DNA sequence: TATAACCTTAGAGTTGAATCTAAGGTCAAG
DNA sequence: CTTGACCTTAGATTCAACTCTAAGGTTATA
């Protein structure tokens, strides 16, 4: 039997968060004290661990609510249902990774083309790439010239 | 010279979005008509292209505002400033990718351990993993047994 | 019995990037 | 001269997942 503060401390969440989970039906404490304090049982704590674990794996609270409703009524669901939730999330995460890898490549191309030195940005290849219509990034040694050796191995696309 | 609707259509954004960019200082139209209509010039359109390109690369509107303020006053900034913005974003994107890869691995482990069949979820290894305290995912063939050949090459962690 | 540390509630605020609503003004075509 | 497509504004709403505030009630300890 825990009060909200104890449970919060034990699982390193804010009491606000537990109240939020209560209000949204994810974790409604098994009972209340006479004065209205939330009383959490060990089973409630288990449910919280389930929530936190699922959250750590990347599920949204909506996903978790779905998982919990299956969990509470397992025998009326099939493995396929559960795996479905996981696989949708997996596809989701994979799509996000692909998108971010695309961003990363774009940023890397920009970064590599720029000397990063104290020179004026008037001929900065990053700004020029953002101004131009093409997706090509021109290297800076073609526009302002300086001793690039100071600034590391930039501009991967030089001849 | 474009009115808001024309510019919006040309670049496939909503007029709302352009008004939002106006209000937030990202793209203030060069002039207004007598009746107060926003009038965008070709230079404004160019600036919009800059914004959209930067957005596609994954910059937030705040990042873009910074990039634009450098762009407008290039000669008073160094390449290092510009590259700084890009490199911070790059680190950011890399961190997000790493986190998502971690999520992906967790989800993959869960998915692989579950048969995904029409069997009752009572012994579903996904739910069991979420219930248990360990991060290990036990394979289902140890709990409910069925002809797994129907459901593909699941449960990578079997003996 | 007073003080501090707890607990309660309803409701507002946060972030980012729009998107929507209401109430109204402008303009070209028929 | 009216219809409909456009434009204006301020301000509200959306999404997720909290986080915070104000105003007050409870409980353990000195």
Keywords:
homodimer, 159 residues, 3% strand, DNA-binding, two-stranded antiparallel ribbon, disordered C terminus, mainly alpha, 53% helix, 6 helices
Report on the structure:
- The structure is a homodimer of 159-residue chains.
- The first copy, chain A, is mainly α.
- Helices cover 53% and strands 3% of the residues of chain A.
- The first copy, chain A, has helices at 4-10, 15-23, 42-56, 61-71, 79-113, 125-131, and strands at 31-32, 38-39.
- A two-stranded antiparallel sheet of chain A has the order 1-2.
- In chain A, strand 1 (31-32) and strand 2 form a beta hairpin.
- Chain A starts with a helix and ends in a 28-residue tail after the last helix.
- At the A-B interface, helix 3, helix 4, helix 5 and helix 6 of A face helix 3, helix 4, helix 5 and helix 6 of B.
- The structure holds a DNA duplex (30 and 30 nucleotides).
Topology:
Two copies of one chain form a homodimer.
Chain A: H1 4-10, H2 15-23, E1 31-32, E2 38-39, H3 42-56, H4 61-71, H5 79-113, H6 125-131
Antiparallel strand pairs in A: 1-2
The structure holds a DNA duplex (30 and 30 nucleotides).
Report strand % of chain A: under 5%
Q: What general form of chain A does the structure show?
A: elongated
Which percent bin holds the helix content of chain A? 40-55%
Rg of chain A, alpha carbons: 27 Å
- Secondary-structure element sequence of chain A? HHEEHHHH
Number of helices of chain A: 6
How would you name the oligomeric state of the polypeptide chains in this document? homodimer
What structural class do the secondary elements of chain A suggest? Answer: mainly alpha
User: What is the residue-mean pLDDT of chain A, rounded to a whole number?
Assistant: 84
The largest sheet of chain A, given as strand count, sense and whether it forms a barrel, is: 2 strands, antiparallel
What is the end-to-end distance of chain A? 71 Å
Strand order of the largest sheet of chain A: 1-2
Question: Greatest chain-chain interface?
Answer: A-B, 55 and 55 residues
> How many β strands of chain A by DSSP?
2
Low-confidence segments of chain A, given as residue ranges, are 146-153, 155-159
